[in-house]
Amino acid sequence: MTSDHYIQSCIDGICDDIAHCSAGGRNNLFNDKAYRLFQAVGAGQILEQLVVSRLTEVALSAGLAQQEIRDTLKSAKRGITEPKPFGNADGMTISPEIAAKASALQAELDVQSREKQAYSLEQLQNNRNNSAADSPYLARKKLTDAHELFFTGEDNKGAFTAHELFNKSGQSAGFERIYNDGSKRVSAGCGVSGVYYGCFLSGKDDDSVCYITEGAADAVSIMLATGKDCYSATSATNINKVAQLMKPEYQRVIVALDNDKAGRKVAEKLGGEFLCVMPENEGADYSDVYCAGGGSEVNRQLTNKVKPEQLADKTPKNLFKLISGFDGYDTEFSYLIKGYLPMNAFGMVYGASGSFKSFQALSWAAHVAMGKNWNGSKVTQAPVLYVAGEGGIGVPRRIKALADTYNDGYPINDLYRLDHPVAMSDIAEVNQLIESIQHYSEKVNKKFGLVIIDTLARCFGSGDENKTDDMTRFVSACDRLKAQLGMTVLVVHHSGVADKERARGSSSLRAACDFEYRVERVKQDMPALILTSTKAKDDKEKPKQMFTLSNVSLFLQPTYLNSCLT
């Protein structure tokens, strides 16, 4: 049950966001926030009159015109058709009466929306041939050379520069107007409840990467600078919808955000699903960067990933952040390899010497780096670092064999090696490892997803792996890697001498693992291994599986690889 005090706090927070929003994005934010409040109206938590009164008051004080406020509230009222209470929305049952009212209003608004969209498309057809070559807005944004992507018009608010909007089916749906003062409005029928976006294509047959931005000027600036396809989401709250829509179409989707409160909120919400970047300076967007330094500066600042400290919670530092009840129970569990390697986790694969445990770890590493399914399980592509603590030529040869078999002989570009151990007990070396990964991540403009430490013994540093304090120090160093880089850390370790069923050393290692696998060689004269899931903290353990290894000839000598891992 949600208290009246909590509901009032939510209303106050939304009104405060509107009051402090910058002029350029204020109308879109007002639309989004109003829609959210009307969802609470639909759920029966707030009276509609109260919402209209509070929103009108705050919008007027923020500088919005009366007609603009009325139009926005009229559009946002569709939120009533998707009832969503404040607080634990999933735990509250919507009554049949509320559901029926929402359904009836939905039908009524659908009719109105179709009529509005037909009118918008008619307006689009009437205006789309109006040249934007003399647009003051494009001149201010230094985008006059791209004027063919825009058109101009005029309405009761004044002259505007506009661009076409598309819906989730890729069909023309209307347009976004950008007035000379920087304020924006989407045409009737393109409300916040759908997926509408601007489309700015490079003209190249290139599905390697696309960029999602909040505004059209940002998208065009990045498109001119990079030569890559760009899409504008019309508002910060719509970015995730557009990014999800484009995800199947491109190998990578990069979200280029404004460096402001709304942008940081989006970055925090998207988490590790998309690479999020933003300009270096507070309050800037990529259109500002283009105006100040041109395409070369845009390319430089597109490597500026959103940093964890930028997303820091504003809770006073002397307080813990308390979470209510089972909030977050429905958070989706993400994997690098579905069912095997979770994202942003710490785990271990262990076995006796000669059990092929390193072969197993390398097979996982190669498939994550290539983004190719492993053993029928879906893989999320990400760069991988393999710390080959034992050195030697075995690891590069095994990688070459994997590349020949699974990548048509081409290099696995996102699989990197470190051919020497890192002393995880040495803070300076751990810092150097973190900085190295960050450097290469920025260099390739990709977030690393996995680091494999092979073996624990070689990278343990000073100390005794049988002592709890020393092992805890090792685990803490791995946790630092995981937390600061947002990646999975996999440790390759040896099994116990007396008890080969468990990993060697202090039991505090297994206790700290989110997942754990044991690798056993089937027979000494047989190139095959058995993989056993011995711990899966947030999932069920998989049954034992056997994999055979085959010879791949490199130069004149054969090398093994896991032949049935696809």
TrEMBL record:
Residues 208-279 form the Toprim domain. It comes from the Bacteria. Gene3D superfamilies: 3.40.1360.10, P-loop containing nucleotide triphosphate hydrolases. It comes from Vibrio diazotrophicus. Coiled coil: none annotated. This is Toprim domain-containing protein. Transmembrane segments: none annotated. CDD domains: RepA_RSF1010_like, TOPRIM_primases.
